[in-house]
């Protein structure tokens, strides 16, 4: 397969375009891994080293008429997890494809914050670099046209660059979180006629891509658009008359019927009378919903049920009334029948951001969480990672291990189960306000502790343990209140918002869905490992070809046929995925990041309690006899089997 690459050296301003055709490269992860591992050897570099590279681009099926094929993928060495990491942004490749390149490679670093303009006319690609002063950038982030953070910067860029484009364009930019933390995200929103489309916001967030973009390259925004059109060497799947028979040949039913059936959860589920991740997850999870910094193991089931009832009343029902019943639905920017983006009162509502900065952080009143989530998003954070941090900090402040004034907070939170049972609205309003305050303090590094928190929970704990050792009980650590999946000596990532054992397993890619993330089940370690591998093999492919995983139900069995018809490539899907995962493991090990045992007692408790809560009596008894020893046995057996299946050494 042929791909067009655009390389931009930000230091020297050297720009080159090349066609690559290399065996085993079918998508952007394949290419980026080759560059990081074999060409630049970035495992030897600090993630913020200017010699590092960031690779972003589209998949081989962008430009087709098939919905979901237009995610923009960023691949970088994560300053948080420590190893190579992919992060994807919905819909953005629908506009990016018009630039006329597949992949962009950024290397080197500008002296000042820089805006990259990419534009294609179908034959040529123009690249412009526009600098701005840091003071000006900070001023915009603070306030511009009534907005702040990434929203303010987007408005500024629209105003100053919209006249450069004759057609629709799109902006991807970062906020102050990328300047001062390891978990800054890259934000983008659909634009129509130079205005932001309400509810269409999307993010490349996990792992800290925004932080790398700004701190390794000094790039604050990428603006792109053009007139180029995709040409497929085989069957033209840009034509619905060509694409439809391929899908229907696999599924044996009408294309749009099967797409509708396989994406019901994300559009509208008539059985639940709701839709989207927010609408579907809360009824399904019940009392397993993560709350109060993952304190579920210490709250009995009856009390968790009462809290869940309040969540349904104060969180889910208003969402359903204001977003679902009114059909305030849109897409991430590409034509798509799923219209998975649900919004209400100007707020784009998805499960993970509203869960991490809502119930997990002590807010179960949606109007309160509107304030906290908007602040976190505006500051340009990975909302999952920040919610994990915020819930941890609020618990530390509640327990007296940190003082509000040290963090820069206006007071202590109401952070008990009784608060959420007896005064859910009042407690939520207080806690959400504190989360919003914390977002600003950490994003702008306004206090010494806020600056430390920007490192992430695990790295910050090492500093806080020494700084406030007199506040800890013997043998205790600030880490013991934090929930993260560890990798190596200091790598970490907040798991996705499910009480799922597979979320805590240290894997080459974690904190996304390259694992088995089913909540409410406790499997034998060998079965869990098998399911993790089975999931990862195709989660890799969705990222490698930039396809929305919401479409996985119908897309997964079609992908092999698409490669064959559009490119004449007969791809062994599973074997290639295994090969790449083995390479990712090899890269992580060379970077010094290998599996380790959980160094947070909160995580051990979540795993141990999971055995009992999810009905595995055998393992529940083992945990009661020897909690830590059993946890070590379980994790080792999972990783031993994972290693055996993949033919690697990824064990503790």
From TrEMBL:
SMART domains: AFOR_N. Gene3D superfamilies: Aldehyde Ferredoxin Oxidoreductase Protein, subunit A, domain 2, Aldehyde ferredoxin oxidoreductase, N-terminal domain. It comes from Thermococcus barophilus. It comes from the Archaea. The keyword Iron applies. Belongs to the AOR/FOR family. Its cofactor is [4Fe-4S] cluster; tungstopterin. Keywords: 4Fe-4S, Iron, Iron-sulfur, Metal-binding, Oxidoreductase, Tungsten. This is Aldehyde ferredoxin oxidoreductase. Residues 1-227 form the Aldehyde ferredoxin oxidoreductase N-terminal domain. Pfam families: AFOR_C, AFOR_N.
């Amino acid at each position: 397969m042929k791909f067009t690459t655009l390389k931009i050296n930000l230091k020297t301003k050297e720009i080159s375009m090349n066609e690559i055709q290399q065996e085993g490269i079918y998508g952007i992860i394949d290419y980026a891994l080759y560059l990081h591992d074999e060409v630049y050897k970035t495992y030897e570099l600090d993630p913020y080293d200017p010699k590092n590279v960031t690779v972003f681009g589209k998949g081989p099926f962008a430009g087709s008429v098939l919905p979901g094929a237009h995610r923009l993928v960023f691949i970088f060495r994560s300053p948080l997890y420590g190893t190579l990491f992919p992060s994807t942004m919905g819909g953005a490749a629908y506009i990016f494809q018009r630039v006329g390149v597949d992949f962009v490679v950024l290397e080197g670093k500008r002296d000042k914050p820089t805006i990259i303009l990419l534009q294609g006319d179908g034959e040529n690609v123009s690249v412009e670099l526009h600098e701005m002063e840091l003071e000006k950038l900070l001023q915009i982030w603070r306030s511009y046209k009534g907005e702040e953070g990434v929203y303010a910067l987007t408005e500024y860029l629209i105003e100053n660059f919209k006249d450069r484009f004759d057609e629709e364009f799109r902006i991807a930019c970062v906020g102050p979180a990328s300047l001062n933390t390891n978990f800054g995200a890259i934000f983008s929103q659909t634009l129509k006629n130079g205005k932001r489309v309400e509810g269409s916001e999307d993010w490349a967030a996990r792992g800290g891509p925004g932080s790398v973009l700004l701190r390794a390259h000094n790039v604050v925004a990428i603006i792109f658009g053009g007139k180029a059109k995709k040409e497929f060497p085989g069957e033209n799947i840009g034509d619905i008359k060509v694409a439809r028979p391929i899908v229907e040949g696999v599924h044996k039913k009408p294309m749009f019927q099967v797409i509708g059936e396989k994406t019901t959860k994300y559009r509208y589920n008539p059985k639940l009378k709701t839709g989207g991740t927010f609408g579907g997850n809360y009824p399904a999870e019940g009392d397993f919903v993560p709350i109060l910094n993952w304190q579920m193991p210490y709250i009995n089931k009856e009390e968790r049920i009462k809290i869940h009832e309040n969540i349904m009343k104060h969180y889910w029902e208003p969402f359903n009334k204001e977003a679902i019943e009114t059909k305030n639905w849109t897409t991430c920017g590409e034509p798509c029948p799923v219209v998975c983006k649900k919004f209400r009162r100007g707020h784009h509502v998805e499960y993970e951001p509203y869960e991490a900065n809502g119930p997990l952080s002590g807010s179960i009143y949606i109007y309160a969480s509107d304030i906290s989530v908007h602040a976190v998003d505006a500051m340009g954070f990975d909302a999952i990672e920040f919610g994990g941090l915020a819930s941890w900090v609020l618990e530390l402040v509640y327990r007296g291990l940190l003082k509000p004034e040290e963090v820069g907070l206006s007071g202590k939170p109401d952070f008990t189960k009784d608060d959420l049972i007896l005064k859910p609205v009042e407690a939520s309003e207080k806690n959400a306000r504190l989360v919003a305050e914390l977002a600003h303090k950490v994003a702008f590094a306004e206090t010494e502790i806020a600056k430390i928190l920007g490192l992430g929970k695990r790295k910050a704990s090492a500093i806080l343990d020494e700084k406030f050792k007199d506040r800890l009980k013997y043998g205790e650590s600030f880490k013991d209140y934090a929930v993260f999946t560890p990798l190596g000596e200091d790598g970490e990532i907040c798991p996705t918002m499910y009480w799922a054992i597979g979320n805590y397993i240290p894997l080459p890619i974690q904190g996304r869905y390259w694992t088995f993330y089913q909540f409410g089940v406790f499997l034998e370690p060998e079965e869990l490992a098998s399911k993790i591998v089975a999931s990862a093999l195709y989660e890799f492919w969705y990222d490698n070809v930039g396809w929305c995983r919401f479409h996985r139900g119908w897309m997964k069995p079609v992908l092999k046929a698409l490669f064959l018809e559009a490119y004449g490539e007969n791809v062994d899907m599973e074997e290639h995925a295994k090969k790449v995962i083995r390479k990712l493991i090899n890269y992580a090990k060379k970077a010094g990041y290998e599996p380790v045992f959980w160094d947070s007692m909160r995580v051990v408790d979540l795993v141990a309690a999971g055995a009992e809560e999810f009905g595995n009596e055998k393992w529940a008894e083992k945990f009661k006899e020897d909690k830590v020893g059993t946890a070590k046995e379980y994790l080792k057996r999972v990783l031993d089997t994972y290693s055996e299946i993949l033919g690697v050494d990824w064990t503790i």
